[in-house]
Design brief:
Elements lengths: L1 H14 L37 H4 L3 H13 L1 H22 L4 E11 L7 E14 L4 H67 L5 H35 L28 H5 L1 H22 L4 E11 L11 E11 L7 H67 L5 H35 L9
Helix pairs in contact: 3-5, 4-5, 5-6, 5-8, 5-10, 6-10, 8-9, 9-10
């Protein structure tokens, strides 16, 4: 019989070896070093993400806004509290290795037929300790640690997104301010032009149709100005909400004074694995799922618990010279699951499926990271080239507007050419402001895509 028990125990021990395995990063079908497009050269120099957000965003107004958001944003504060929750759960998982101890004091008073009252009291204590032979507690602790890593990475992901959101909203305001300024100048110019046409019409050198068309163009420009002012107010309201404040006007600089690095370095693609918090969050979730699967496997093996109790009693108060005695008990138990209606099997299948889901999510997070880096670089490069072309276009259109207005005064051209030239100039100037913003947004998106701001000081 002893030989049979020894053999069974040996089989159990050998079979449970796998549940102590530690997580190792799996081989993925996508190679980390191939995440960037071939035309995007991986730079071994320091990545732009190595810069702190204060080094990248040097505008003092923006720095104050980001600092305020890091201190007051609701989503970030909730994410921080989630980290605290996971820290508490990890402590709980570590303490599971220790025995549990309970104290159970009792006391009674009794009297029979008016006799002297008898006092009886007991002070009992019990303890139990689960021996972690089959890794249930070990995997629970490792799972809790992975959950803490996931919540910490999520907190950093919220932080990087918050920095990018505040910066993007701020530069959106600067772009809208510039477009509002351009449109206001255009409205004033149209008013002067309309006034000139009225003078020409009174002199018989312009007709009513020409004046009406110019008035319509002025009204259109004023409507565009109102639309821009609405967008400015809405953007300020959105940014105020992100800052954890009621809606108010946002203090800010201007678009022309913004300065950024003329050359952006991405670093090598492999850095994304350790730098981007959302990738670390996805891998931590995979790690946690791995240990949950180990826990599900461990549920098939016995639970071994040692328990004991000790108590002190006065033995009914019968002996004064020996007012008490000790009661001791020790028990060892082994519980082996045999039949629980397939619950353990179902739990294991569920854990395996969730682990596979986590693996796919981790893989997709890598692909998404590569896509975001590629898109940000393309956006930045394209915007820089468009700005050069926009400036060239504005220069030529300014000359065109000046020349056509002179020609119209001398009657060698009609108002349609002037109208077309003016509208084209307005559109080109607005595009120039938009492309300046697109260039800055490319910097913001690249910084965020590379994991910049994850280690920001609060």
């Amino acid at each position: 019989m002893r030989k049979l028990l020894f053999t069974a125990a040996t089989v159990c021990l050998l079979g449970s070896c796998g549940i102590y395995n530690r997580y190792e990063r799996p081989e993925l079908s996508v190679a980390a070093d191939s995440l960037y497009r071939t035309e995007v050269k991986a730079d071994t120099a320091s990545s732009v993400a190595d810069l702190s957000w204060k080094e990248l965003f040097t505008d003092p107004y923006l720095q104050a806004l980001i600092q305020q958001a890091l201190e007051m944003n609701t989503d970030l504060r909730i994410a921080y509290l989630k980290v605290k929750e996971m820290q508490a759960q990890l402590v709980s998982a570590k303490l599971a290795y220790l025995p549990s101890v309970q104290l159970d004091p009792q006391g009674t008073l009794s009297s029979l037929d008016g006799s002297k009252t008898s006092k009886t009291y007991e002070v009992g204590a019990s303890a139990s300790w689960e021996i972690d032979i089959f890794g249930k507690l070990t995997n629970a602790k490792r799972s809790a640690r992975a959950a803490l890593e996931e919540s910490d990475a999520y907190h950093q992901a919220v932080q990087t997104q918050l920095i990018a959101t505040v910066a993007d909203s701020y530069y959106t305001l600067l772009m809208l301010d510039e477009q509002e300024r351009i449109t206001s100048e255009t409205v004033a110019s149209w008013k002067d032009y309309v006034h000139s046409l009225y003078v020409l019409m009174q002199a018989g050198e312009a007709d009513r149709a020409t004046v009406s068309q110019a008035e319509a163009s002025r009204a259109s420009a004023e409507a565009s100005l109102l639309s821009l002012q609405q967008q400015i107010a809405e953007t300020e309201n959105s940014l105020s909400s992100v800052l954890g404040e009621v809606s108010h006007r946002i203090q800010r600089g201007n678009l022309s004074n913004q300065r950024f690095p003329q050359r952006l370095s991405t670093g090598v693609p492999l850095e994304l694995l350790s730098r981007r918090p959302d990738i670390r969050q996805a891998e931590a979730a995979l790690k946690q799922a791995f240990y949950v699967t180990n826990q599900a496997r461990a549920a098939f093996y016995p639970s071994i618990t040692l328990s004991g109790s000790a108590g002190w009693t006065n033995n009914g108060g019968a002996v004064v010279t020996n007012p008490g005695s000790w009661l001791l008990q020790a028990i060892g138990s082994l519980v082996q699951p045999i039949f629980n209606r397939g619950q353990n099997i179902a739990n294991l299948k569920t854990a395996k499926a969730q682990q596979e889901e986590a693996l796919l999510t981790f893989r997709q997070s890598l692909l998404d990271a590569g896509k975001e880096v590629n898109n940000a670089l393309i956006q930045w490069q394209t915007a820089r080239e468009r700005i050069r072309l926009d400036e060239e276009q504005v220069k030529h259109l300014q000359t065109t507007v000046h020349d056509t207005e002179l020609l119209m005064e001398y009657g060698t051209t009609n108002y349609l050419q002037v109208l077309t030239a003016r509208q084209s100039l307005l559109s080109a100037r607005l595009d120039c402001a938009s492309d300046c913003y697109q260039e800055i947004q490319g910097v913001i998106n690249l910084y965020h895509a590379l994991g910049g701001g994850a280690e920001a000081d609060l």
